[in-house]
Amino acid sequence: xxxxxxxxxxxxxxxxxxxxxxxxxxxxxxxxxxxxxxxxxxxxxxxxxxxxxxxxxxxxxxxxxxxxxxxxxxxxxxxxxxxxxxxxxxxxxxxxxxxxxxxxxxxxxxxxxxxxxxxxxxxxxxxxxxxxxxxxxxxxxxxxxxxxxxxxxxxxxxxxxxxxxxxxxxxxxxxxxxxxxxxxxxxxxxxxxxxxxxxxxxxxxxxxxxxxxxxxxxxxxxxxxxxxxxxxxxxxxxxxxxxxxxxxxxxxxxxxxxxxxxxxxxxxxxxxxxxxxxxxxxxxxxxxxxxxxxxxxxxxxxxxxxxxxxxxxxxxxxxxxxxxxxxxxxxxxxxxxxxxxxxxxxxxxxxxxxxxxxxxxxxxxxxxxxxxxxxxxxxxxxxxxxxxxxxxxxxxxxxxxxxxxxxxxxxxxxxxxxxxxxxxxxxxxxxxxxxxxxxxxxxxxxxxxxxxxxxxxxxxxxxxxxxxxxxxxxxxxxxxxxxxxxxxxxxxxxxxxxxxxxxxxxxxxxxxxxxxxxxxxxxxxxxxxxxxxxxxxxxxxxxxxxxxxxxxxxxxxxxxxxxxxxxxxxxxxxxxxxxxxxxx
Length: 584
Prior knowledge:
The protein has 584 residues and is of the alpha/beta class. 64% of the residues lie in helices and 10% in strands. It folds into two domains: 8-319, ABC transporter transmembrane region fold (Up-down Bundle); 338-583, P-loop containing nucleotide triphosphate hydrolases (Rossmann fold), CATH 3.40.50.300. Strands 6-7-8-3-9-10 form a six-stranded mixed sheet, sandwiched between helices. A four-stranded antiparallel sheet has the order 2-1-4-5. 36% of the residues are buried.
């Protein structure tokens, strides 16, 4: 069960720490409810016994009826309040889990976060966590009551007649054996169901999110097949789960309620032989009937227990991800020079950077170029602390970034990629993400410097226009300029541009370049360049190939000394001519 570093119970207790008093009171109320729940059985059995034995008095019968009613109402009231408090506790646990996941995602390497499809995060934070609400809210009071009531009834049965009490338990071991058969490999099978559902959610999010590209390139059948396969796998895993558990479940449900098969013959024999009076016999039958039902209801929580265990283990897998080990106290930085010293880095167990060393020009522009897959973006993300290096170090102001708080690195380095995410908030609030306490005037000034003030004013509600999910209401170039405005407002001394103009049309490229010029004025700039014409004025150009620095210098020098840079430049010049002809 405990495949993660912490067991299921230990994790749940940690999450439940803020609501411990609620849980204790819920259990206490459930216990009191169970005690009151046994009262109607005892009162009714006594009443029937007195009637059958001819010893009843009307006032006594009336009193027993009233006691039964009050016991029932008290049990109902106590169990209701127990359930209310357990629901409040369950909601608190869900909140604790979601806060723990959110906090964890802020501490794990950004690259690890980006490696997981967004659909899986949605499934984890919303669907997976939500599955815990019903079992957590109901198991505490109901499992307590459904376990305690049979025990109390059994005790009273032993008081009435020990032999009938024992015979009433005869079918329970057989039923429990059936349930044990059902539980064999139950967690593993249920875990496969949860995994299949998670993969189905991720495939659905990917299919819906990429529908425009799918239709454009006529890949509907292929993409739909991936989603359909995920749905079929989910169906197969559930069918396998039901097929291997249903037989045992049906057998257990058939055997356990049949306790009267032993109680009736034994009770009748004792009555006929004068060992048991009729009233006591009827009382034993009533109690035997009431003994099994709550026990069956308690055993039905095996599904819930397995689901809780599998779900908590899945959540635990995320919470056990390796974090970036960074200090909390800010470190004074003498300057903003960025350097890599014999850095090696592996991605999915494959080394993609091999002992790379270089320094970036402080308060100047350093460009990194190379063929696709050479490791350019990996270098940019290491500088922005998306990951820690396998060996070697990335330094900021002469200090290893691993000795600098992550929050300080984030404040010092602005990372602008080719695909910047915008929230479904107003344009104003999206820009303000760069500086949460910025005034409206500061937001608009940043927009002007990013060359996006004019197009924002043309939007239906100006700065109050919603950007849409992921910025869907804006074009790619407009989203990019909004992201640059956000970075301008942040005003970090180090700026990393990861192919920020890779997919822009000529008009937007010119505007983006103008906004970048405003962004990087007086700052240390590292540019991952796809279009070499944008970095010809760089103070230093690094040429990367297969995870190694193969050349460095200025544009003119590299055209003379680096055959790879020459090839990249010629390819870029040809592509630029073709692109300009297309746009004319």
